Amino acid sequence: MKTGVKKVKVHVKKNDMVTVISGNDKGKSGKVLRVYPIKGRVIVEGVNIRKRHMRPTQSSPQGQIIEREFPVHASNVKKG
């Protein structure tokens, strides 16, 4: 762990059902997929979907654009 970085106690755990209470996805609910306690963020299933541009590989020579969930701040979600 880096020095000077404080680990935040997050009120939700992996696999908890949560509801978003603020932001663009307000009112959406889903399951917590991952928790980042150092940053105080969580990834919620189906919330904060962004497009990610992937570079070309052998399996996809043209590259691709995938949609995936990005983290939201833990204070913007509540259990239930």
Describe what you observe in this structure.
This protein has 80 residues and is mainly β. It has a single domain (17-79), classed as SH3 type barrels, CATH 2.30.30.30. The chain is built from no helices and seven strands. A five-stranded antiparallel beta sheet has the order 6-3-2-1-7, with no helix packed on it. The chain is globular, with a radius of gyration of 15 Å. The termini are far apart.
Keywords, separated by commas or semicolons:
mainly beta; two-stranded antiparallel sheet; 7 strands; 80 residues; SH3 type barrels
**Beta-sheet strand percentage?**
35-45%
Mean pLDDT: 93
> pLDDT below 50 for ≥5 consecutive residues: which ranges?
none
Q: What is the name of the CATH class?
A: Mainly Beta
Choose one word for the global shape.
Answer: globular
Numbering strands along the chain, what is their spatial order in the largest sheet? 6-3-2-1-7
Instruction: Quote the distance from N terminus to C terminus.
Output: 31 Å
What is the number of independent domains?
Answer: 1
The appropriate CATH architecture is: Roll
Instruction: Output the helix-strand order.
Output: EEEEEEE
| Count of helix runs | 0
Radius of gyration: 15 Å
Task: Summarize the structure in short.
This protein has 80 residues and is mainly beta.
Q: How would the blueprint of this fold be written?
A:
Blueprint: E1 17-20, E2 29-36, E3 41-44, E4 49-54, E5 64-69, E6 72-73, E7 77-79
Antiparallel strand pairs: 1-2, 1-7, 2-3, 3-6, 4-5
